[in-house]
């Protein structure tokens, strides 16, 4: 069953076209990766799904519901959580406060506390730094915090924008493991990555986006073996 | 010299050739309806018209009002440099006018200077004030400048009220008009059988200085290198700094030039009114000058002239509304900022009947192999769609419903 | 000298803290709004003025009906005025500032000047340019404390101010909505992605800030007894100065800045004379902006919008 469907989406920033008849889909409980160079339109795709920008044409649906007209906060309420590029955690709030605000829309206080505890269990370094200000954390810890913050919100669809950016290989591995754990618990994941190797390792399927539309699609194994992908993104 | 360098360097392989432009540059416009020539000609005509007013009417009232209005135009042009070109909100601009007016006033009434001789000192005082106020504040966010300049306006006004050298609350009176090398406007002039009174001579002087020198000077500045630097800082300071423009010194230069403009206008004002006092320099007047600039068109010479004339002359024409005047201005400011923030005559706007340059739209370029892949993918989609149009088959692994168009998506 | 230490010194400190609590109440709204949408709400001081005029009208009607007024009635009027000024703040945001959310900052600042003008001269149209006498004046005895005089009305007002600030602090620091406010001040885009209805939170911030300014206006009217349409102008500038001194966007900074400004003014006028008070204040502003622009407690604002 397709959970997330983008059909023939056009997106313009003023007169510059960012997305050109883009069509992708994500099945329930899949991990789908979006690969491509800078400026290809990957971040625009995520921003459009989470409601930060509106498509000029085409449709974006989640489990049948049209997202294009919803406000960002309603899209979050529907269970779609977007972890933006660059972490963007709240620097002068403590780690714990950051987690709490991830649960802004969660009505049950106990549930928030429970999910926060799960996040601490999953990422023990966060628990150590519980009362520290977010801005004092390292890059990798901030990425964990951003993930934890999303987890407290109980996402049905997780949109990740370049989670591995600027992180050491070991930390990238940890982050990817957490993403797999999240999928095992029933969440669907759409992962935008420049680090194609790490992304294709955990993804089920992937798309290559160029110039705002899909240039290639297939299973992760297919793409990992494709000579063009290897040459352009896997550094062969 | 350029060719030798290029051949040498090219021989060494160290010279990168700039790519040829995508389109040929359009030919420059010519003729009277070319915008620049039209505006210049119109400006000249209006200038001559202004000069001929004393020949049309002898009414001292009209001359006096127009003198005020043109001094106002000069003040507004000064603020336009700060707010319009450089994008710095100055809410205490009248303070510089006050500095100029009081400096000239004190030096002429108490120290025997002639107005002309006070100008260098006025300029010095305004530069100093600009550095003292703008220096620390322009390093920070530009929002802060607004409040600090407001405070500065108040400081000047309160200081003028408290000090005795400025005449305290009653101010300075008896400020003389201009004189040059012993001959003063007050002496009058006889030419071709026409007597020009002191006021009329001063009017001519104001038209030449305020409309001629100051206005044209400010407009020229905006088209020069400094003006371009101001505008790029206004539009995007980070990008400008990345291109080597020092944001801080650029902003400071705008602020100081604006200060000097205001100060000299203040000297003119002191002569015109012959008596100045602190109530003339309240925040109200800073706000009115700002309104003139904003309502007329920030950064636009014709706009600011119209705005300044409107704000200074409207009370004369709309006497019944004088009570409501400020309330209307306030509401007008909000309405204009929401619906037409560029003002009545936006900067760089061209009157509709003037010639315009035609520029070809550019196409975006794509990575070669991606363009091919995209075409292949689209061809495939088109083929699938053609096939699936007869049946219910969906495109790709997507769901039911033809996803084309805005209301795609299963219901 | 000894007399100064015991007598005048305490009086100066007390007076400074008293005036400072007004500054703090108004600075809070200024600082919160700046923190959340980077707007120096130039009209904020005029909300303070509106508060005093609204209370003027309400008290006038009450005294018209009942013939007299008392402290409990003043408190009731205070509450109603706070709600009304809060609402006016929300209205102003909706009408004048929200349409310009994506415009350059210069445009919104200019609009704020326009709003301020509209409020000032609107009130002038209705009530006239001459100052009005507030119908109810707080009166009470003074007590001698440490060589200075402390009056009961001063104590009452400072207690009210402290109470308001304490409640505000609880709300902003502990509650979910308060956390959302602080988050928007740090990173509006990321906060959107947390599911926060940013528009609603911004409205709420305006409500709270304006209510506090309105409260200060009522208290000023009741204490000083005279109100006029330009009284918001100076207080707006002082509030900004206080916010900068304490640290813009910082809740505790606004409170501290207000008190510090009150003290600075108190001592400054003692040395320089009353007519130089405002000049001294702005000199402090420029000094702080030159030496420590982030304020005593540090600023709490987003670096990029």
From TrEMBL, chain A:
GO molecular function, one term: ATP binding
CDD domains: ABC_TM1139_LivF_branched
Family, per entry: Belongs to the ABC transporter superfamily.
KW Iron-sulfur (keyword) present: no
Taxonomic superkingdom: Bacteria
Keywords: Amino-acid transport, ATP-binding, Nucleotide-binding, Transport
UniProt xrefs under InterPro entries: AAA+_ATPase (IPR003593), ABC_transporter-like_ATP-bd (IPR003439), ABC_transporter-like_CS (IPR017871), BCA_ABC_TP_C (IPR032823), BCAA_Transport_ATP-bd_LivF (IPR052156), P-loop_NTPase (IPR027417)
Organism: Agromyces terreus
Residue intervals of the ABC transporter domain: 4-236
Protein name: Branched-chain amino acid transport system ATP-binding protein
Keyword Transport set for record: yes
GO biological process: L-amino acid transport
Transmembrane segments: none
Automatic annotation (TrEMBL), chain B:
Highest taxon listed in the record's lineage: Bacteria
Keyword Glycoprotein found: no
Residue ranges, compositional bias (Gly residues): 402-411
Signal peptide: none
Compositional bias (Low complexity): 373-386
GO cellular component: plasma membrane
Ranges for region Disordered: 373-411
Transmembrane segments: 44-63, 69-88, 93-113, 119-138, 159-181, 201-221, 252-271, 283-314, 326-347
Subcellular localization, as worded in the UniProt entry: Cell membrane
A molecular-function term among this protein's GO annotations: branched-chain amino acid transmembrane transporter activity
Mode of membrane association: Multi-pass membrane protein
Primary localisation category: membrane
UniProt KW keywords: Cell membrane, Membrane, Transmembrane, Transmembrane helix
Protein known as: Branched-chain amino acid transport system permease protein
Organism in which the protein naturally occurs: Agromyces terreus
From TrEMBL, chain C:
Pfam families given in the database record: BPD_transp_2
Parts of the chain that traverse the membrane: 12-35, 47-67, 73-92, 104-123, 152-172, 201-223
GO biological process, alphabetically ordered: D-alanine transmembrane transport; L-alanine transport; L-isoleucine import across plasma membrane
UniProt membrane topology term: Multi-pass membrane protein
GO CC terms in record: plasma membrane
Keywords from the UniProt entry: Amino-acid transport, Cell inner membrane, Cell membrane, Membrane, Transmembrane, Transmembrane helix, Transport
Domain of life (superkingdom): Bacteria
Keyword Transport attached: yes
InterPro entries in alphabetical order: ABC_transp_permease, BCAA_transport_permease
Entry's localization field: Cell membrane
GO molecular function: L-isoleucine transmembrane transporter activity; L-leucine transmembrane transporter activity; L-phenylalanine transmembrane transporter activity; L-valine transmembrane transporter activity
Family named by the database record: Belongs to the binding-protein-dependent transport system permease family. LivHM subfamily.
Alphabetized PANTHER family for the sequence: BRANCHED-CHAIN AMINO ACID TRANSPORT SYSTEM PERMEASE PROTEIN LIVH, HIGH-AFFINITY BRANCHED-CHAIN AMINO ACID TRANSPORT SYSTEM PERMEASE PROTEIN LIVH
Name of the featured protein: Branched-chain amino acid transport system permease protein
Source species of the chain: Agromyces terreus
């Amino acid at each position: 069953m397709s959970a997330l469907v983008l059909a023939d989406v056009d997106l313009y920033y003023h007169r510059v076209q960012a997305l050109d008849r883009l069509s992708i889909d994500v099945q329930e409980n899949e991990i789908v990766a979006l690969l491509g160079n800078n400026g290809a339109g990957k971040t625009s795709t995520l921003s459009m799904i989470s409601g930060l920008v509106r498509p000029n044409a085409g449709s974006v649906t989640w489990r049948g519901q049209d997202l294009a007209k919803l406000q960002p906060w309603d899209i979050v309420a529907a269970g779609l959580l977007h972890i933006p590029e660059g972490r963007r955690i709240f620097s002068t709030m403590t780690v714990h406060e950051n987690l709490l605000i991830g649960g802004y829309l969660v009505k049950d206080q106990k549930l928030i506390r429970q999910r926060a505890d799960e996040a601490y269990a999953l990422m023990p370094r966060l628990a150590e730094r519980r009362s520290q200000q977010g801005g004092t954390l390292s890059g990798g810890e901030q990425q964990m915090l951003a993930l934890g913050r999303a987890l407290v919100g109980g996402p049905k669809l997780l949109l990740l924008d370049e989670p591995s950016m600027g992180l050491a290989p070991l930390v990238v591995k940890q982050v990817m493991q957490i993403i797999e754990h999240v999928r095992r618990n029933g969440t669907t994941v759409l992962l935008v990555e420049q680090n194609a190797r790490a992304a294709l390792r955990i993804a089920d399927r992937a798309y290559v986006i160029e110039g705002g539309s899909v240039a290639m699609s297939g299973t992760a194994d297919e793409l990992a073996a494709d000579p063009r992908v290897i040459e352009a993104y896997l550094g062969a | 010299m350029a060719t030798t360098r290029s051949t040498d360097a090219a021989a060494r392989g160290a010279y990168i050739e700039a790519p040829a432009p995508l389109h040929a540059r359009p030919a420059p416009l010519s003729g009277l309806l070319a915008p620049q020539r039209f505006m210049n000609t119109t400006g000249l005509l209006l200038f001559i018209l202004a000069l001929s007013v004393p020949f049309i009417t002898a009414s001292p009232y009209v001359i006096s009002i127009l003198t005020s209005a043109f001094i106002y135009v000069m003040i507004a042009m000064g603020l336009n440099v700060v707010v319009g070109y450089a994008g710095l909100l100055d809410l205490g601009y009248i303070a510089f006018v006050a500095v100029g007016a009081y400096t000239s006033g004190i030096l002429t009434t108490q120290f025997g200077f002639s107005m002309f001789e006070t100008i260098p000192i006025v300029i010095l005082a305004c530069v100093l004030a600009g550095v003292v106020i703008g220096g620390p504040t322009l390093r920070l966010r530009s929002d802060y400048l607004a409040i600090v300049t407001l405070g500065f306006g108040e400081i000047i006004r309160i200081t003028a009220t408290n000090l005795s050298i400025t005449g305290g609350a009653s101010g300075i009176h008896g400020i003389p008009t201009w004189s040059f090398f012993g001959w003063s406007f007050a002496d009058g002039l006889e030419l071709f059988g026409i007597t020009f009174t002191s006021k009329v001579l001063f009017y001519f002087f104001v038209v030449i200085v305020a409309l001629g020198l100051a206005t044209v000077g400010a407009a020229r500045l905006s088209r020069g290198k400094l003006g371009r630097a101001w505008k790029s800082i206004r539009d995007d300071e980070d990008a400008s700094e990345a291109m080597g423009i020092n944001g801080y010194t650029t902003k400071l230069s705008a602020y100081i030039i604006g200060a000097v403009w205001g100060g000299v206008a203040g000297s003119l004002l002191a002569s015109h009114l012959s008596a100045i006092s602190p109530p003339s320099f309240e925040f109200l007047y800073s706000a009115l000058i700002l309104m003139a600039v904003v309502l007329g068109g920030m950064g636009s010479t014709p706009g600011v002239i119209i705005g300044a004339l409107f704000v200074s002359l409207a009370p004369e024409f709309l006497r019944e509304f004088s009570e409501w005047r400020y309330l209307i201005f306030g509401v007008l400011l909000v309405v204009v900022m929401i619906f037409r923030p560029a003002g009545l005559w936006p900067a760089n706007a061209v009157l509709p009947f003037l010639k315009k340059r035609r520029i070809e739209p550019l196409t975006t370029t794509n990575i070669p192999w991606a363009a091919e892949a995209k075409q292949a993918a689209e061809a495939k989609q088109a083929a699938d769609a053609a096939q699936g149009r007869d049946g219910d088959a969906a495109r790709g692994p997507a769901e039911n419903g033809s996803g084309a168009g805005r209301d795609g998506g299963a219901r | 000298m000894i007399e100064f230490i015991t007598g005048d010194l305490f009086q100066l400190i007390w007076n400074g803290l008293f005036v400072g609590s007004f500054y703090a109440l108004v600075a809070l709204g200024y600082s919160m709004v700046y923190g959340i949408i980077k707007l120096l709400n130039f009209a904020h001081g005029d909300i303070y003025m509106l508060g005093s005029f609204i209370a003027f009208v309400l008290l006038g009607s009450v005294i018209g009906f009942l013939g007299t007024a008392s402290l409990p009635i003043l408190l009731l009027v205070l509450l109603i005025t706070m709600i009304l000024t809060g609402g006016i703040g929300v209205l102003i945001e909706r009408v004048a500032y929200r349409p310009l959310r994506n415009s350059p900052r210069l445009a919104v600042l200019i609009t704020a000047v326009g709003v301020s003008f509209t409020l000032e001269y609107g009130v002038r149209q209705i009530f006239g340019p001459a100052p009005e006498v507030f119908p109810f004046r707080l009166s009470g005895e003074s007590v001698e404390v440490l060589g200075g005089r402390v009056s009961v009305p001063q104590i009452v007002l400072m207690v009210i101010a402290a109470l308001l600030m304490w409640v505000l602090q609880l709300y902003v620091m502990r509650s979910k909505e308060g956390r959302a406010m602080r988050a928007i001040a740090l990173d509006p885009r990321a906060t959107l992605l947390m599911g926060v209805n940013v528009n609603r939170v911004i409205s709420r911030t305006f409500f709270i800030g304006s209510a506090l300014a309105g409260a200060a206006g009522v208290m000023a009217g009741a204490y000083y007894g005279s109100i006029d349409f330009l009284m918001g102008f100076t207080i707006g500038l002082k509030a900004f100065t206080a916010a900068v001194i304490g640290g813009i966007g910082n809740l505790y900074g606004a409170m501290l800045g207000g008190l510090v400004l009150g003290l600075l003014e108190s001592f400054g006028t003692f040395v320089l004379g009353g007519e130089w008070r405002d000049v001294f204040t702005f000199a402090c502003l420029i000094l702080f902006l030159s030496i420590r622009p982030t304020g005593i407690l540090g600023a709490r604002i987003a670096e990029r919008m």
